[in-house]
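name: query_chain
kind: protein
chains: 1
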Amino acid sequence: MTLSDLPEAAFLLGEGGELLACNALARHLLGLPGDASQTGAATALASLGGLAAAIERARMADSLPVRIGLEPLPGRLVELSIAAAGPPGTWIALAREGSGQQHVEQRLQRRLAFEQLVTSASASLIRAEPDQLDAAVNDALGALGRFFGIDRAYVFLIDYEAQTQSNTHEWVAEGVSRESHNLQGLPLDVFPWLFSLLQRDEAMCLDRVADLPPDAVSERREFEREGIQSVLVVPMWHGQRLRGFVGFDAVRQAVTWDSDCLVALRLLAQMLAGVLEAHKLAQRLRALAFHDYLTGLPNRVLMEDRLEVALQRIQRKPRSLWLAMVDLDGFKQVNDTWGHAAGDEVLRVVARRLQSVLRQGDTVARLGGDEFVLIIEDEDEQSAHQIGSRLLAAFDAPVPVAGETVRIGLSIGLARAVAGRDRPGELMRRADAAMYRAKSAGKNGWAVDSPVS
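structure:
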């Protein structure tokens, strides 16, 4: 049996909703002559939108057929019943005239489904831990993308300090290429026409990329490179500042964006702006709680936590663990001569030099003032002589300050932990006592505190 033998309007559709074939009744339903060309019918069907979304729903559905309502002509309501066809990746859609009541009910069901989706996505974004946020954003993009049957959904964020924009999050339908790796660190002025729209809080809604104005040269070139046929982009604001934008792409076939898509994307942009800003603030607060504001090094709280973990580690696996207390020699002269701003810059230089000496996994922390602590783990049983020599050598070169240079010395107290016996406070007390002995012995040197047997 062929489509022309069926007593109903019938459409044979591809995976993305594109028209493969239809009968004369289907052409009539679209308001076309029965002998209208396949191209004309495909264009008319694509202009309705919603088919790709319906097929995506059919693919995910537990039972078939899936039914949707369309309005091919003003006041003319049609119900499509979609089920899998014989050949893999094809779908058969049978159409019949629908009633106004059916149309209202279908739109209500769709609206309720959309509201449930938004509520679920919002809850997931709000609950996401910092290391889960990116996955939660991509999941939200995917949920909306599948709901509306589009091919690609994405987020761009703006870095005003670097004057760049980057595609930070992306979801794509099966068989559609990812593009985020090609869209990192782009200059803010790379898409001037689009950026001017976003700054005016306007959406870019293009059913056909060919409809771009002549001055959108860069935009046209990029959309064609990505194979985009239709594109919808909305700005993402936080307060009075444009933070980026969120977009939908139709790649496999052009679509007509309806008001539901625009509303959905606006809502998503608002949700993401709030959530991303909240996470950014939380990161700043965590950094202030556990890091020194001046040097960016771990503070006492984080250092003591890492020292506790390191002490537990040497109980499980024998290895050496040294704690070094470091006090700067000659730092008071910097503040007295050049002022506290210069002193702050010297402390930042000292922090960088201490970090350069240690290996990955070791810790440099600032306790406050000109006091630093180093946690050094080493499976090679480093000697105190090797550790002290490396630290002092890092300060052989003078430190630049206010157009001049000053020599900074280190008084270092070293204490080696005893597995199963030392606690953080005891180990710090021993290293501190050794540091004062080094300072009393003439400064710019080190002393070792040996545990009492």
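note: Residues 3-98 form a domain with the Beta-Lactamase fold (CATH 3.30.450.20).
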